[in-house]
Amino acid sequence: MAFWTAGAVGLMIAYLLGSIPTGYLAGKLLQGIDIREHGSMSTGATNVLRTLGKWPALAVLVIDVLKGAAAVLVARWFCPWLASQLSPTPPTAAELQVWVPWMVCLAGIAALLGHGRSIWLNFTGGKSAATGLGVVLAMSWPVGLGTAAVFGLVLAITRIVSLSSMLAAVTAVVLVFGLAHPLPYRLLVIAGGLYVIMRHRANIGRLLAGTEPRLGQSSPQLDSTP
Question: What is the C-alpha separation between 118 and 90, in angstroms, rounded?
């Protein structure tokens, strides 16, 4: 019972961390605008860059990455501690070894859903790439660094953020299977990667049509799916 209670609390915290509407708050605080009414209508760092500028976008990017990392840390450290406090018999090391990776998996997914479907924004939000990177970095830093490296390389070559994000998601899946990781971590990266790619479905159409804007280009109101 203690495991279930701690797990439920951890998932709720992970979702609420992910759902912090960083880009939306930046628009309101800096220019008094609803960023969902500008550019691509997304609350992510790319739309913040096009709408508000470089430094607000950098701040949003860093905070979004930290949201994902914090969700994993909650699952890895807070949930076991809470379970030990709620249970008259503290969980054994063997139980934690089995239980914690599954909690990390579910907390990571909850954070991604929170970012893309924020309760504070009527269940709209960003495309979850930055939050996903934070999840992967906290889950496994080698996978996270490899993912970030591919994102940076593709962005430097193409200057297309959506393509960089999707190829980074694919890279994370390849790396998590190429390195030794428990099954829950692999399931998390597969589910998270698919989710990020699905959130970019409108971008995929524009990439195929050759109309996807590059970094630094002004962006019209591209679509109504943030």
Answer: 34
How far, in Å, CA of 74 to CA of 29, rounded? 28
d(C-alpha 111, C-alpha 117), whole Å: 10
Tokens at 50, concatenated: 């096009």
Residue 223 confidence class, pLDDT cut points 50, 70, 90: very low
Provide the token pair at 207.
Answer: 């990439």
CA 34 to chain centre: 21
Report which DSSP code applies to 77.
I
CB 196 within 8 A of CB 135: no
pTM: 0.91
pLDDT at 206: 93
Residue 219, pLDDT score: 55
Please tell me the predicted confidence (pLDDT) of residue 175.
97
* Pairwise CA distance, residues 170 & 185, whole Å: 15
